[in-house]
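Supplementary Methods S3. Input chains for the assembly prediction are listed below.
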Amino acid sequence: MAESIFGIHERALQVRTERGQVLANNLANADTPNFKARDIDFRKVMAAAEDELATSKPDLIRTNSKHIEGFADATTENFLKYRLPTQPSLDGNTVETHIEKAKFMENAMQHEATLEFVNSKISGIRGALRGE
Amino acid sequence: MSMFSILDISATAMHAQTVRLNTVASNMANADSVSSNKDETYRSKQPVFQTILDESTNEPKGGVRVKEIVESQAPLKMEYNPNHPMANEEGYVYRPNVNVVEEMANMMSASRSYETNIEVMNTSKQLLLRTIQLGK
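Predicted structure tokens for the full assembly:
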């Protein structure tokens, strides 16, 4: 039920959170020698998620008809790529703080937008229930 | 994976930067600690950062830690000053190999990184609060 209300937004929130984590990790390691910055390609993850939704869900195996349907967590690890640095530093670190900061803020804004979508879905359903 | 781990990641980074600030403070405070022999002279201390790896996958797990604190191998400064109370038989005193300008730059870099991580934490906190407020 919840899945049909929120649609792709549920998965989008997950991916946004994971991307935020990767970017926060880049910023945390801004001064670590030999650290390579990474990022998640959001568009590709969502395209894959849409395919999954359209075809068959990566269901958990049900061995009994009374088992509830499971929605296996898809991973984003395959979409984790290393960033190409524009100005790599001598110590092998490829984190460019200004770029990472911008990406992090961008991700946060889009996260908030997704939250707003989910929120309006909830208010829509609530409005329907109350008959307002 | 959850939003809360972003806070953990930033916390480890802030801790590492605090250690770095601490070594800077120690180096600056001892920049003029003279001594009469090589072994007793203060040497500049520098932290070495390392990303925290997941033991099973060897992938970066999130966060950073201070691997070790090394002493700088730069040569000590010898100064001919026979009137100094700490001077040795030949009239030399040893000065630490602390480069004050380098330490100042180090301090600025550490405080900037600290600020960045605070910003990350603040943003994550706002998103978490918005998530809690969902449907209200």
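The beta strands of chain B are 45-53, 60-71, 77-80, 92-95. The longest strand of chain B covers residues 60-71.
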